[in-house]
Amino acid sequence: MDHSETKTAPETRGRVHVRLLRKIGVAIAGSALIIAGIAMLVLPGPGIVAILAGLGLLGTEFPTARRLSTRLNTYAKTAWHALRNRFGTRRGTTT
């Protein structure tokens, strides 16, 4: 019996448990940020920022959340640039 085989089995199981705990923690924290962000849409606070942060956090473990976060960030940047161009507010310019 090779001792290297017996050592890797518990280490692998330990890594699986750590990865599962990490995934659960990320899911809870990301969901909490999204829920808080939704609440902040009607309450004072940066609701959209919290929602995007929650999606970004969820995206570290879940590919679907990563794709959604990337898409929403692109829409947010496009909207921001459209508003800046429409109202002509640029940093460093005086009117």
Automatic annotation (TrEMBL):
Pfam families named in the record: PGPGW
InterPro entries: Uncharacterised_PGPGW_TM
Ranges annotated as spanning the membrane: 20-42, 48-65
Keywords for this protein: Membrane, Transmembrane, Transmembrane helix
Protein name (Swiss-Prot/TrEMBL): TIGR02611 family protein
